Amino acid sequence: AKPSAKPPVIWLELGGCTGNSISLDNAVNPTLYQLLFDMIDLRYHWLLNAAQGAPVIDLLYDTVEREAGNFWLIVEGAVMTAADGKFDILFIDRRDQAVTGLAAVRAMAPKAKYIIAVGDCACYGGPSAAYPNPGGAKGVGKVVSQTVINIPGCPAHPDWITGTLTHLLLYGMPQLDAYNRPKMFFGKTVHELCQRRQQFEDGIFADFPGDDGCLYKVGCKGPVTHADCPLRQWNHYVNWPVKAGTPCIGCASPYFPDGLMPFYNY
Ligand code: SF4
Ligand code: F3S
């Protein structure tokens, strides 16, 4: 089949909470509507599918087969690797076999043009991999050998998702850092960009969340977390954790959450 002008996209939801899909609903420029109708050809996404059952599975497999080398694979949620992936059954395939997230990712990744992990769980395991992690949750990059573009965050900011997809559409692969994150969004720490940075330098610290002053002594992880939240802000660009009086808990870090505990310190 002739490749479509808009890239065919398969979005798999594995071991996660669908929070990144919900976050994407909040996209402003482009909107979700523009993304779906003008930019990509979304073939499969279990929250957004207009149909269910066999027709959807047919479309999914037709895309993998006929658009091999052309479709983009977006993964949300961690890959559950324990018990051969049986902690996460995605769907029943055309041969009536239960397909795990682990099997689906391994089968589809080699055929995808780009693999994009959205949210901390898909990138690095995230909350799904928190101790004691009985399901063996891991980031996509740990189970496939292809390059995975990681867009972390819990959830990922809608701009981080749409911006990365736009870059892929217009210019191809964005520059990635050592954790395979697009540098354009994760090149600086929250601390470098924070509006309370001067208070940090001046030694003006908050004693409790909600107080004025730098939140470092309350447990802020801004100094060790790379993301542009202070400039970009959330919820249609109106607020972000420190501005709301709560320390950054490092939700975009590859080590979130276990490596950043305790979140609060007071
Ligand atoms: Fe850095 Fe956090 Fe203080 Fe902002 S509030 S200056 S990110 S330690
Ligand atoms: Fe997350 Fe810290 Fe940004 S908690 S939303 S990375 S300010």
Automatic annotation (TrEMBL):
EC number(s) on file: 1.12.99.6
**Sequence positions that bind [4Fe-4S] cluster 1:** C17, C121, C154
The UniProt annotation places [3Fe-4S] cluster binding at: C229, C248, C251
The Cytochrome-c3 hydrogenase C-terminal domain is annotated at 186-264
Q: Where does [4Fe-4S] cluster 2 bind?
A: H191, C194, C214, C220
Instruction: Kindly indicate whether the keyword Coiled coil belongs to this entry.
Output: no
Could you tell me one molecular function GO term of this UniProt entry? Answer: 3 iron, 4 sulfur cluster binding
Give a GO biological-process term.
anaerobic respiration
Q: What is this protein called?
A: Hydrogenase (NiFe) small subunit HydA
Taxonomic path: Bacteria, Bacillati, Bacillota, Negativicutes, Selenomonadales
Q: Which part of the entire protein is covered? A: 34 to 299 of 413
